[in-house]
Amino acid sequence: MPETITELRSADNSKDKRPETPSAGVEQAGVNLAAVQQLSMQQALNRALDEILAEDPKSVIFGEDCGRLGGVFRITDGLQAKHGQERVFDTPLAESGILGMSVGLAMAGFHPIPEVQFDGFAYPAINQIVCQIARMNYRSRGTLPMPITLRVPSFGGIRAPEHHGESLEALFAHVPGLKVVSPSTPHDAYHLLKYAASRPDPVIFMEPKSRYWQKGPVDLTSAVPGQGTHDAVTSNGGSLTGARVAREGRHLTLVAWGAMVARCLQVAELAAEDGIDVEVLDLRWLKPIDVEALATSVGKTRRAVVVHEAPLTSGLGAEVAQLITKSCFATLKAPVERVTGFDVPYPSGDLEDEYIPNIDRILFGIQRVLEYRRG
Amino acid sequence: MTTEAVRGAVDDDAAPLTHHHLRELYTLMAAVRHLDTSAVAWQRQGIIPGYAPELGQEAAQVGSGYAVDRTRDFVFPTYREMGVARAMGLDMVGYMSTHKATWHGGMYNPLESRFAPIQAVVAGSVLHAVGWAHGQTLAGHAPGDMGVAMTYFGDGASSQGDVHEAMNFAAVMKAPVVFFIQNNGWAISVPTERQVAGDSVAARAAGYGIPSLQVDGNDVVAVYEATRSAFAHCRAGHGPVVIEAMTYRRGPHSTADDPGRYRTLEEERLDAGEDPLERFKQRLLTEGVADEAFFAEAHRLAEEEEEAVRAGIADLGPRPGSEMFSLVFQEPTPALQSQATAWREESEHA
After folding, report:
1. Any catalytic annotation for residue B253?
2. Can you tell me whether residue B69 is helix, strand or coil?
């Protein structure tokens, strides 16, 4: 394998523009073809919210511009007209108010699904998220659960202004009392949102905004919730609670989530041309992390690279690397590598391609792992 | 002292307080005064690690808490609302357990008590009250039959941005919320004039389109009537009300505080005004509502109650350490479960 590495170096950014290869059929087995539709992630999320409102009379959706406008990304498009102004409503423009209000609604028995318009605007609400939502179940000794699903359009890649391209997963995952999930495909977006909204604990739902308009197959067969957070499956056998093998491979595991999954699948196709068989593990749940899936995948490939958009230092890649090292130390061929954003404020659009891990940087990361020699 | 008339002038039909009610108010204030001063003593004796006294605020707390309908209203306190809790009939051992360091939010059941968990972030729960109150609207409660949320905070907390967001949200959504401000003159060491320009917190309400009342917070009957009136306004579906009860924090901010570093005893004497308990007693005597025997009995009951609460606190004991883990989530994560297992094994081994 190492012989092929020099050739991998020649991969340039133009390959970023290659059409993406559909994800391998690992989870396609057992799909109910009649229920499969081609939907964008925006459509899949909109459909999930529509069904949640119809199925759960206690669910309410609110935030800035969620009502008549349907949200700046149109995720709540048409929902107010269909379900009424009491179920889907606009709030004043204040994120702490939106999240603080969610706490009170949850205490009154509702299932709030608030939206923070962009990732960077979660910061003004951080006190309510960290000190209130995450702790109320604990503070109240379990008498006041917080079944809140906070939707956050997340990550970069859309040439947006400052504060519109942040990756907050490590920050949220560090907070006791929160769960964090990020879908990478329309299918997962639909099922994970419906699942998150059915749970009694607060979930930060990080939507990869650069993937909103990519279409993919969505099996609309409804999910079958399990007894706990960690055993729910869809009726076609796909899990809702753990990681997902997006592409099987033998030589190395790329661990990613959100928008980085599609990029890692592109990288895997390029690497395959050089005989490197890359497995792509879509982590999906960033808290709790599916430790077994990491152990299974890297136990097999014995090499791992974690890819995320967030800055390197104290990023979630460090947590993933430790979990892999702990379960696979004896068989690892190389230290777990991280390919991430830099320790800089998220840059302007002109520079964001330099910041977000691109195909070249991920390939270099793969190379470092493959070429690693002990001593 | 009303800065703006509360629409619907509320409860004009409401019956005046009977002698029975007046005596009950005094009994509650006496119980609160004695429990409060005792709690400071408990701290000095090492029974509890800390306490935030409400000495001087008995009228504001008992008068407002007495107006709550526990069948449908809900109160959102901070950490200095012991008098409200007592007036609402909370389990006081459960309440005081937060000061025993048993559990942050207290050991009482907030849903049954209609009293949210004790909140250490000032203004943290003000927005929760707005959300809960908007839930009353969403649940379709008819005007006249709505549950009302009452949120407590002080002149210091009124500087927090969440108070602005809460008042604005509540006004826009016409949420049935009573914003009950106890202006006690001090936020730890910083006096009100360093928190509030524009005369008062109540004056800010006009900017939100919220009717407000400023009331003598050391007059328990005035506080009760203002609160009752605000509740009627909210219950009728007219939206929120701001009440600013002007009172005085006669004690330290907490048992860890030393007011001598920022105010003199002479200033305290001048600023505190008449003791709300003594003042109410004189009124009851003058009006022939109660006699000395009644007051003696009220104080005997207060002492009896304090002894029972102190015994209850002493009997509490620490919660099992497993609750650190089991109460974080409704559905604990595998990582948390394995931490709990490791904690159990290692603590047993030690």
Report:
1. yes
2. coil
What are the C-alpha distances in Å from B227 to residues A324, B26, B147, B216? 59, 17, 14, 12
Judged by CB atoms closer than 8 Å, whether chains meet at B169 and A103 is answered as no
B165 touches chain A (CB under 8 A): yes
User: Tens of pLDDT along A140-161?
Assistant: 999 999 999 999 999 999 999 9
- For the record, the structure tokens of A31 come out as 């799909």
Rounded to whole angstroms, the Cα distance separating B165 from B286 reads 45
How far apart CA B215 and CA A308 sit, in angstroms, is 56
Q: Which residues of A are known catalytic residues?
A: 164
What are residue A352's phi and psi, to 5 degrees? Answer: -70, -25
Q: Which residue type occupies B203?
A: A
Comparing A33-42, A250-259, B90-99, B250-259, the range with the smallest average pLDDT is: A33-42
B chain contacts of residue A145, beta-carbon cutoff 8 Å: 330
| Residue B134 is a catalytic residue | no
Burial of A131 (0-12, 13-18, 19+ CB in 10 A): middle
Digit-coded pLDDT (tens) for B72-87:
999 999 999 999 999 9
Which residues does chain B have within 8 Å of residue A90's beta carbon, measured at their own beta carbons?
none
CA distances from B79 to B58, B83, B247, B314 (A): 15, 11, 17, 21
Distance of alpha carbon B135 from alpha carbon B141, whole angstroms: 9
**DSSP string across B173-224:** HT--EEEEEEE-SEETTEEGGGT--SS-SGGGHHHHT--EEEEETT-HHHHH
Q: What is the distance in angstroms between the Cα of B96 and the nearest Cα belonging to chain A? A: 15
Q: Among residues B86, B249, B250, B310, which one is catalytic? A: B249
- 10 Å CB burial of residue B323 (0-12, 13-18, 19+) is middle
Its pTM surpasses 0.80:
yes
Nearest to A138 among B161, B169, B328 (CB): B328
Give every CB contact of residue B149 below 8 A, 6+ residues apart in sequence. Answer: A104, B73, B74, B75, B76, B129, B130, B132, B133, B136, B175, B176, B177, B178
- Taking contacts as CB-CB distances below 8 angstroms, the residues of chain B near A127 are 121, 124, 162
Q: Report whether pLDDT(A228) > 70.
A: no
ipTM score of complex: 0.94
Tell me whether B320 touches chain A (CB under 8 Å).
no
Contact call for B109 and A143, based on CB within 8 A: yes
What does the alpha-carbon distance between residue B70 and residue B58 come to, in Å, rounded to a whole number? 20
The tokens describing B9, both together, are 């002038």
Q: What is the 3-state secondary structure (H, E, C) of chain A?
A: CHHHHHHHHCCCHHHHHCCCCCCCHHHCCCCCHHHEEEEEHHHHHHHHHHHHHHHCCCEEEEECCCCCCCCCCCCCCCHHHHHCCCCEEECCCCHHHHHHHHHHHHHCCCEEEEECCCHHHHHHHHHHHHHHHCCHHHHCCCCCCCCCEEEEEECCCCCCCCCCCCCCHHHHHCCCCCEEECCCCHHHHHHHHHHHHCCCCCEEEEEEHHHCCCEEEEECCCEECCCCCCCCEECCCCECCCCEEEECCCCEEEEECCCHHHHHHHHHHHHHHCCCCEEEEECCEEECCCHHHHHHHHHHHCCEEEEEEEECCCCHHHHHHHHHHHHHCCCCCCCCEEEEECCCCCCCHHHHHHHCCCHHHHHHHHHHHHHCCCC
Give CA–CA dist B89/B24, Å, rounded. Answer: 12
List the single best residue of B138, B165, B338 to mutate versus A (max A Cβ within 10 A).
B165
Which residue in A98, A99, A133, A138 has the most chain B C-beta atoms within 10 A of its own C-beta, making it the best mutation to test that interface? Answer: A138
Enumerate residues 6+ apart whose C-beta is below 8 A from B87.
B28, B32, B61, B62, B64, B65, B66, B68
Q: How confident is the model at residue A35 (pLDDT cuts 50, 70, 90)?
A: confident
